[in-house]
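hiii, so i know i said id send this last week but things got crazy w the move. better late than never?? heres the sequnce for the chain we talked about at the cafe, plus the structure i predicted for it. fair warning i was half asleep when i ran it
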Amino acid sequence: MSLLKETLSKIEGLDEKKMQEAQDRLDSLTKPPGSLGKLEEIAVKLAGISGDVYYKVNQKHHILMAGDHGVVEEGVSAFPAEVTVQMVYNFLHKGAAINVLADQIGAKVTIVDIGIAGEIEADGLINRKIRKGSSNIAKGPAMSKEEAILSLEIGIEMANNAIKSGANLLGTGEMGIGNTTPSSAIIAAVTDEPLSKLVGYGTGIDDERLAHKIEVIKKAIDTNKADTNDGIDVLTKLGGFEIGGMAGVMLGAAANKKPVIIDGLISGAAAIVATLIEPETSNYFIPSHQSVEPGHSAVYKYLGLEAMLNLNMRLGEGTGAILAMHLVEAASDIISGMATFAEANVSGAE
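okay and structure toks below
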């Protein structure tokens, strides 16, 4: 059995009995019922994911997938493709926002070259390069079906390795110049939302280039005619290697009954791919922030999720996912650390 098929066979629904137990526990704590809002929702979800009412988040691991995109040759990005290599060196030297935020919360960061166009020789990089960038989706499929499956399995492998090393909360992030274009194509194709409401300025393009970007995405969707009921076909036709890698991380987390945080637009496109491949996977997602990228709202609508944070961010790297780790850890501490009304000798509501 292939790694992908084996992984999919392990993904199940949430443990509803444990979720009810968690809700009962939360309602008995020294606070008005529901007064901690989304933190309580997360605590209940963690119980359903893990089968443990007192699930303790204490090892946080962020997996950042890096890959390049052939569609950059269409002029859809404000930055040249070589910035992907330059930024990955920055990650490895701990000079990026993701490094600062991860260090603040004590999260381990793994950087994976899954399809960077250039070569990087540096300690700390996991080299699982499929090839030097995906193909131009405006002219044909991003990759072969075999490459799509490989990207998913690399992500699964990264999740499995992190979990074997003790990780019990995963984050997803990416680096790849031009990757808002394939992400927007995936979101538009699957949700049927109009491109005018989905496509944003990415790394800072002007209005003229935005109009061009929309035309390129429309051409990609029309050219490739992806089967929007088939996540692997969507990834093959419209995706990117780092999108497949993140979707694989999500599938791997779900198979291991571990929560995984989705980040912004690109991570959201990966979440759509993972959900198309196995719908139960979405039960294991924890949303992080609301990106400035307009298509991100369509992602949350499709997945039935709601952002916890709205900080006007659009950096990528998984910066929103890292920030949300604070909140997930807080939710896991609340259900186990707070006293009940009976334990604290506090009168409850009448």
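btw The chain has two domains: 3-55+335-344, 60-330. thought thatd interest u
miss u guys!!
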